[in-house]
Amino acid sequence: MFEGEQTQTEQRAFTGQLPAPSATSRTLAEAHHRYRDLDDGEIADYIPILAEADPSWFGLSFIDTTGRAHEAGDVEVAFSIQSISKAFVFALVCQARSHEFVHERIGVNNTGLPFNSVMAIELNDGHPMNAMVNAGAIATSALVTGETPAEKWETIRTGLSRFAGRSLELDGRVYRSEIETNQRNKALARLLESYGRIITDPLDSVDIYTRQCSLLVSAHDLAVMGATLADGGVNPVTRERVVSAEVARDTLALLASCGMYENSGEWLFEIGLPAKSGVAGGIVAIAPGKGALGTFSPRLDSAGNSVRGQRACFDLSRALGLNLFASSPEPPHR
After folding, report:
1. In the chain, helix, strand, coil percent, each to 5?
2. How much is the mean pLDDT over the chain?
3. How far apart, in whole angstroms, are the C-alpha atoms of residue 294 and residue 75?
4. Of 28, 19, 292, 29, whose CA–CA distance to 165 is shortest?
5. Shared-domain flag, residues 278 and 204
6. Which structural domain, as residue segments, surrounds residue 258?
7. For residues 158 and 212, what is the distance between their CA atoms, to the nearest angstrom?
8. Of 38, 43, 85, 314, which has the fewest CB atoms closer than 10 Å, so is most exposed?
9. Which pLDDT score, from 0 to 100, does residue 296 have?
10. Counting runs of H as helices and runs of E as strands, what totals does the chain give?
11. pLDDT tens for residues 126-176?
């Protein structure tokens, strides 16, 4: 993913704390300027509506745990959250159920296979393995609280809205476009049902999952949502507790190991942050105790991850001292 690259920004932040607000904002602006004209990658077109995205869109937002925003570019452009929703629905289910229940029912181990793999289910006796792949996400959505599909959907919509600190809306065009092309997800759900992993109507679960992927967010929203996990489950803008500190910890652990699918190890090695991407071009990357990056640019690499977003995360992880595994001595007090 980043082999052979040399970032133009040397790490200059003490890893135990963020730089001064002015320096953080300046660093984001520099990263945006550096990559705004990068035209590598292609816009996703297997979901027809996504092909209409403007390839020039590029936004970077960092929200720290005080709620302060540092932003550059198209941070308010709305796009569908897609697979990034998986992380936050997982957190809602963990909050409603239990650590042990979700661990046993869904799992937390990387499949090492593509996000929509059928083979991964068959090789693991019907176990979805983790909530970040499509099979696991569908099984997770089936566990959301609610007596009816409509109630489950409202639990998700209101829950993700609390993470974002504002009411999120469904993009009906994206939803309809995905419903017309999601035969593979329906097949995954039927396969999970045959193994007893989904005990409600599997097609209802696929519909709920498709709706959650069709919620509209911005790079700013993603940063707020990620910063809520970084702040132990408390939204740093609204100051509302959305999930417990334990659930935030569990969600970040899962994102670290599985959030970027079969490239999760490489991402963690290079960038050192729990993260999740979506095929509309969004990425959220979280630095526990510090804040979160929300990026948006619709040009994707072959793995379905935003090219500009990845490059920016790579630079900013180092420049802002975000990498979980990096350490450098605190500068002497003067």
Report:
1. 45, 10, 40
2. 92
3. 8
4. 292
5. no
6. 21-82+217-319
7. 11
8. 38
9. 98
10. 13, 9
11. 888 899 999 999 999 999 999 999 999 999 999 999 999 999 999 999 999
Residue 15 lies in a domain: no
Residues 309, 270 within the same domain:
yes
Tell me which amino acid residue 31 is. A
Q: Whose structure tokens read 């809602």?
A: 92
116-150: buried (b, 16+ CB within 10 Å) or exposed (e) per residue? ebeebbeeeeebbbbbbbbbbbbbbbbbbeeeebe
Residue 127 corresponds to which tokens in the numbers above? 């176990």
Beta bridge partners of 276: 284
Where residue 278 sits, what CATH number does that domain have? 3.40.710.10
Tokens of 173: 């065009």
Tally Cβ neighbours within 10 Å of residue 3: 6
Token duo for residue 130: 């983790």
Question: How confident is residue 262, by pLDDT bands cut at 50, 70 and 90?
Answer: confident
Element (H, E) at 61: strand 59-64
Sign for the CA dihedral angle at 281, 75, 273, 227 comes to negative
Q: Which token pair is 247? A: 């659930």
Residue recorded with tokens 């650590």: 99
- pLDDT tens-place string over residues 191-239: 999 999 998 999 999 999 999 999 999 999 999 999 999 999 999 999 9
Task: Summarize pLDDT for 2-56 with one digit per residue, the tens.
Answer: 543 444 444 444 567 899 999 999 999 999 999 999 999 999 988 889 999 999 9
